[in-house]
Amino acid sequence: MGGGAPQPVVLIVDDEASVRMFLRKAVLRCGFVPLISANAAEAEATIRSTHFDCAIVDKNLPDGSGLELLDLIRAQRPDSDVIIITGYVNSQSAIDALRLGAVDYLCKPFDFDTLEHRLKAVVERRKSLSQQARLESMLAHADRLSSLGTMAAGVVHEINNPLACVTANLNFVDEELRELMVELPAESAARLEGCLEALRDAREGTLRAVTIVKDLRIFSRRDETEVELVSLEASLDAAVKVATPSIKGKAVVERRYGDSASIRCSRTRLEQVFLNLIVNAGQAVGSTGRSDGAITLTTSTSEAGEAVVEISDNGTGMTPEVKARLFEPFFTTKGEGEGTGLGLSVCHGIITGAGGRIDVRSEPGQGTTFRLTFPAAPAESTPARMVGKVA
Ligand SMILES: Nc1ncnc2c1ncn2[C@@H]1O[C@H](COP(=O)(O)OP(=O)(O)OP(=O)(O)O)[C@@H](O)[C@H]1O
Ligand SMILES: [Mg+2]
After folding, report:
1. What are phi and psi of 160, to 5 degrees?
2. Does domain 228-384 have CATH number 3.30.565.10?
3. Of ligand 1's atoms, which has the minimum distance to the CA of residue 338?
4. Quick check: bond before 185 cis, omega within 30?
5. Is 390 in a helix, a strand, or coil?
6. Does any ligand 1 atom lie closer than 6 A to the CB of residue 281?
């Protein structure tokens, strides 16, 4: 078999040496790896300790029943299939085996060809089932994100106008009050101070709502911006500049820039992705309180010619539960007012929109690395156009 996927492992359980030899040969002929047990006790130990894809189990064993082993396999190894061997052509025992969850049965004596054919069919079926399950879960995830995107677009539309109206009116009242204060006697002016303070809080609140709506608009992808040839390093530098106030005192930024290819993407969106990731990294380092906090920005070109960026931090790291929900809109572990949980779902949308992907490596207490991979811009567009622009 070619490299890549591991070879399927087949557990053989039979008390007759000649049958074991025969089955072993057949398994090898299929290109699979045989695991052999001569009795129920041995088989039980293997089932509990070792992974296998399929088991061929004799129904009658001197120290136990093959059907009991079938039960054990179904409980311990739900991803493994079982084929039961029955001694006689007796349809009732075959039906019993199938009812108990075996995928197939074989009657002794059997020939190589039948065995090989049925064994391969069982292994293939399992492989396509797990591929299908993976595909279904990816589709369900994409579907959830896309319906949330549609909903977000509607919400943005409904909220944007009233929000603009509130902001404009708050600004107007603020200006009027300030002018009025100058004209009023000192005593009355002092009372207005409280009103101005309340207004400032109200304006801060609306500003926060405006930011959320802006994020949602990008998330819903209704807000198209110009796609151009951008350099990862220049965009990272721009994002660091904007992020500096929020990471100052928490982490130092180390740049390890390699020779990465340019990519085609919206410059502002790419900077937003980097900004979100750097701010998250700063927050993760900040909450450890460590004095050697660091955010490392690495760029490179992969063997396949893709442009790669890694943003690493030595912050809190993440539990598997957090990692699993990371890109869901509104998923946050931060306190109220600290995070909306939109940052990474926005990043995910922008990156996949540019044909790239985002992966994460993280362990609690071990920090986090986000790895972004983008297709490089076509070779002819990189140097030629850039030179063309300069000339
Ligand atoms: N570098 C990181 N280290 C540890 N945890 C992280 C890191 N980046 C993201 N997370 C976790 O993922 C969650 C979701 O991140 P996301 O950026 O989407 O939202 P947020 O930062 O909570 O809020 P927002 O970005 O909208 O202000 C965070 O609340 C945090 O638990
Ligand atoms: Mg964030």
Report:
1. -60, -50
2. yes
3. 27
4. no
5. helix
6. yes
Q: What is the CATH number of domain 9-110?
A: 3.40.50.2300
Q: What are the tens digits of pLDDT across the range 137-176?
A: 666 666 666 666 666 666 776 787 788 889 889 999 999 9
Give the distance (Å) from ligand 2 centre to CA of residue 297. 17
**pLDDT tens-digit series, residues 237-280:** 988 988 888 898 999 999 999 988 889 998 888 988 998 999 99
Alpha-carbon distance of 214 to 220, in angstroms, equals 10
Ligand 2 ion: nearby residues, β-carbon < 5 Å: 280, 343
SS3 state at 58: strand
Q: Of the CATH numbers 3.30.160, 2.60.40, 1.25.40, 1.20.58, which one belongs to the domain with range 139-219?
A: 1.20.58
Q: pLDDT tens for residues 68-100? A: 999 999 999 988 999 999 876 666 777 888 888
CA distances from 38 to 24, 85, 106, 133 (A): 12, 14, 18, 34
What is the pTM for the complete model shown?
A: 0.53
Q: Please tell me the distance between residue 346's alpha carbon and the centre of ligand 1 in angstroms.
A: 12
Say if CB 339 and CB 332 are below 8 A apart.
yes
Distance 341 CA to ligand 1 centre (A): 7
